[in-house]
Design a protein that fits this description.
By secondary structure, the protein is an alpha+beta fold. It has a single domain, classed as Aminopeptidase, CATH 3.40.630. Helices cover 28% and strands 32% of the residues. It has six helices and eight strands, in the order αββαααβββαβαββ. It has an eight-stranded mixed beta sheet with strand order 1-2-3-4-5-6-8-7, sandwiched between helices. Bound molecules: coenzyme A.
Amino acid sequence: MDERILKRYPKDVGLRDGGKVRLRPLKEEDLEKLYEFFLTSVTEDDHMLLRDNVKDYYVLEKWCKNIDCDRVFPIVAEAGDGRIIGNATLHKREFGWSRAVAKIRVVTCSECRGMGLGTAMIRELLDVARLIGVEKVMAEALSSQKGAMDALEKLGFQKAACIPGLASDYMGHSHDLCIFIYTVNPEWDAF
Ligand SMILES: CC(C)(COP(=O)(O)OP(=O)(O)OC[C@H]1O[C@@H](n2cnc3c(N)ncnc32)[C@H](O)[C@@H]1OP(=O)(O)O)[C@@H](O)C(=O)NCCC(=O)NCCS
């Protein structure tokens, strides 16, 4: 990963309640803390709608043991007591038609929603995207994830498509899948 990006961390950001969290790249030793985060801080509703089974230790072990920041750049938000309270990733492809497109995923702990953490983490990954020359950032949200859709739109993502009933949760209910696109402005100074 580009030195300019790694030099950004750790990065402290303020939350709406006056608290502070530290953003930094995920590291292999975070496995237990990341597992704890997904196990205790993400509600069943969110969990059911996420793409991966993040309550499966082996899924997280694979993430932590195979960190390749040029392919998937993962950041975590760490609270003052060392707990992980947010996880966000920027997924990039090396070749093919989508090499100028990255995909973003973010989850914050259910008790700290509405404090500005999700916004801070998405903003951070949009800056990283700009620095590595990404032109468009894509995000997916289900129509039932109102918080996610609002958060993305407020940050300047445009809803590009909504595919009715494409997604189904673990209970067998179907949901519309919405695709959001953010156009990166290469002129902005991300430092
Ligand atoms: C989407 C998500 C990351 C937002 O995280 P967050 O920490 O609440 O983010 P913020 O505090 O910055 O809030 C951003 C916006 O989300 C919306 N939001 C936050 N909490 C909300 C709540 N409890 N109810 C409804 N909307 C809410 C608001 O529009 C808010 O904007 P505002 O602060 O200007 O009012 C979080 O809801 C989440 O982890 N959801 C589950 C996973 C997911 O859906 N990921 C999206 C796929 S990319």
